[in-house]
């Protein structure tokens, strides 16, 4: 599936699609990079739009409410001054609960890391991708680094979810930290 139709970053090759020759491996690794890049690009844009939109709704709703309170709408329209405030409260709650800002930052970081890694790979601009290296080793290193960035992002969200559910998390040494630990 190409990156335009991709709904998630999970894209397993079908049986017999794993290439055995060097050129095929390079093409497959670059396709994996492109799929990951497209996924994180789309996620970054989605989260940024939600965060900015809800933040604007919060700001506008809180700014308009005092002005509307000064206007006499009559008995039948008393609810009008409360609407912007209610919308602002809902927008603020959604922003806090859905963590759009954190998602935006996390996905942008991962996207930037992937693009940086791709640039180093294409230009052979770092010691691990140097022109003196074996092509198999370079492709393996690029694939491993892409996977490292993607799994780092997954692990950070796993930690967020575990912390959200339990109020505490385990640190690197396995000790529990947080509320009630």
Describe the structure.
- The protein has helices at residues 22-69, 82-98, 100-123, 135-166; strands spanning 168-170, 176-178.
- With 181 residues, the protein is mostly helical.
- Strands 1-2 form a two-stranded antiparallel sheet.
- Helix 3 (100-123) runs antiparallel to helix 4.
Task: Provide a brief overview of the structure.
This protein is mainly alpha-helical and 181 residues long.
Topology:
Blueprint: H1 22-69, H2 82-98, H3 100-123, H4 135-166, E1 168-170, E2 176-178
Antiparallel strand pairs: 1-2
Helix pairs in contact: 1-2, 1-3, 1-4, 3-4
Described by strand count, sense and barrel closure, the largest sheet is: 2 strands, antiparallel
Task: Give me the number of helical elements.
Answer: 4
Number of strands: 2
Principal-axes geometry comes out as elongated
In percent, how helical is the residue content?
55-70%
The chain-level mean pLDDT equals 85
Oligomer: single chain
Distance between the termini: 45 Å
List keywords for this structure.
181 residues; mainly alpha; two-stranded antiparallel sheet; 4 helices; disordered N terminus
